[in-house]
């Protein structure tokens, strides 16, 4: 690079000065454009990060989203971010890229043309040498410009990707799984019963079935409780009822109509789910509670929180119901998260309620208060309870005891105690404080 500079100065210091002035003009134009590219890159990367976070949160909350029938809203949020935030910034980046290339090329051609004209005038005294001198000068300048241009392109590329260098975007993958069944009959309400008929569920072909030959009926307005050790199949029954999985064999009927015949969206709109693995979005608490019923008023949200024994701790937070709880609700305790989830289910006022060990993270005092609220809320609703503490299901209309994916006992609390078998043993152990059924 230094050699080319020496050649230029040797041929004509004046022309070299002119080239420097013209090159400085090109540099100033690039200096004006590069901050625009860098700022757009930062905004573009931030938009990509926001979309990535939203996709990650959506994937993590798939069970909740599908349980509440909010697939359209979830995908709509992502589409809104893409169309209103990401695409305009990508288009702006494309426009800036289209500008910088032609501007640089046209300015380079202009500079070369001016140098030829000025050089011919400056070197005209030496007619015999004017063309060789100009050719040598332009060739040396071209080589020098190519070297400097490499640095410029590198700097321009750095500016274009500076946002990505500041923060890596996340790569997302999802399992190839059908999460939503499109179409089907509109579910208008449960009139008679939900029935499991010879239901078998096998998650993987090379593993034993999670459920085998399950048969039971849930009459409308009744409470059915599931009891069993970890892995017995309790949560699998809840997953089947919400439509997260289809039975491998047998069928689930709603008022004598196969669940597969119904639109899952309308079925889930009438269902409330509170699970042991409570999912909380990185949004204000009021929006987390309102998730199942977006049109709910603030007064309705507060009443649902009171019913779930969550109002007092929410009101004590720095921003009350507007407090953002962090990703997966990490700013709340386990018991607080579950009470928010209970409030979310209560606000929705579903016909079918699934409580998958819903009070497992509550202390005894909170559990007692929540159980009182649930007792009132469950009236006239069809409820499936996955039991953690047997004391919470003594009033259930029927209790099913599961072992290794099969129903081994069924009856009311008193009937099962009278049998003196597995349920009675669980009850005795819990009464002695030795074990919890989970």
From TrEMBL:
It comes from the Bacteria. The chain crosses the membrane at residues 6-29, 103-123, 129-155. Pfam families: ABC_membrane, ABC_tran. GO terms for molecular function: ABC-type oligopeptide transporter activity; ATP binding; ATP hydrolysis activity. Residues 1-160 form the ABC transmembrane type-1 domain. It is found in: Cell membrane. Its main location: membrane. One of its GO terms (cellular component) is plasma membrane. Gene3D superfamilies: ABC transporter type 1, transmembrane domain, P-loop containing nucleotide triphosphate hydrolases. This is ABC transporter ATP-binding protein.
């Amino acid at each position: 690079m230094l050699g080319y500079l020496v050649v230029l100065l040797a041929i004509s210091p004046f022309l070299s000065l002119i080239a420097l002035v013209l090159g400085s003009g090109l540099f100033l134009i690039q200096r004006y454009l590069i901050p625009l590219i860098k700022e757009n890159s930062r905004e573009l990367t931030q938009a990509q990060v926001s979309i990535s976070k939203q996709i990650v949160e959506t994937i993590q909350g798939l069970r909740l989203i599908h349980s509440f029938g909010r697939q359209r809203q979830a995908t709509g949020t992502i589409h809104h971010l893409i169309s209103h935030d990401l695409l305009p910034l990508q288009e702006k980046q494309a426009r800036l890229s289209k500008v910088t290339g032609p501007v640089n090329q046209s300015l380079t051609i202009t500079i070369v043309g001016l140098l030829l004209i000025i050089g011919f005038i400056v070197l005209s005294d030496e007619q015999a040498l004017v063309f060789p001198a100009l050719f040598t000068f332009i060739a040396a300048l071209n080589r020098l410009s190519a070297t400097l241009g490499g640095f410029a392109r590198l700097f321009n590329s750095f500016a274009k990707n500076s946002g990505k260098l500041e923060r890596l975007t996340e790569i997302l993958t999802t399992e190839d799984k059908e999460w939503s069944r499109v179409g089907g009959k509109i579910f208008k309400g449960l009139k008679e019963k939900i029935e499991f008929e010879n239901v078998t569920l096998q998650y993987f072909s090379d593993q034993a079935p999670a459920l085998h030959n399950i048969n039971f009926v849930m009459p409308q307005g009744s409470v059915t409780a599931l009891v069993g050790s970890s892995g017995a199949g309790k949560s699998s029954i809840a997953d089947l009822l919400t439509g997260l999985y289809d039975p491998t064999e047998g069928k689930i009927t709603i008022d004598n109509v196969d669940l597969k015949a119904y639109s899952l969206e309308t079925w889930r709109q009438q269902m409330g789910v509170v699970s042991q693995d409570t999912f909380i979005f990185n949004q204000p608490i009021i929006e987390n509670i309102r998730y199942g019923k977006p049109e709910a008023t603030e007064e309705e949200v507060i009443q649902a929180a009171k019913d779930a024994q969550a109002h007092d701790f929410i009101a004590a937070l720095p921003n009350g119901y507007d407090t953002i709880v962090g990703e997966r609700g990490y700013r709340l305790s386990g018991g607080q998260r579950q009470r928010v989830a209970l409030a979310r289910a209560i606000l929705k006022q579903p016909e079918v309620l699934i409580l998958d060990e819903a009070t497992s993270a509550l202390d005894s005092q909170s559990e007692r208060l929540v159980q009182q609220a649930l007792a009132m809320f469950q009236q006239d609703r069809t409820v499936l309870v996955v039991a953690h503490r047997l004391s919470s299901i003594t009033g259930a209309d029927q209790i099913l005891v599961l072992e290794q994916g099969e129903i081994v006992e069924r009856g009311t609390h008193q009937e099962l105690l009278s049998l003196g078998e597995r349920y009675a043993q669980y009850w005795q152990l819990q009464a002695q404080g030795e074990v919890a059924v989970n």
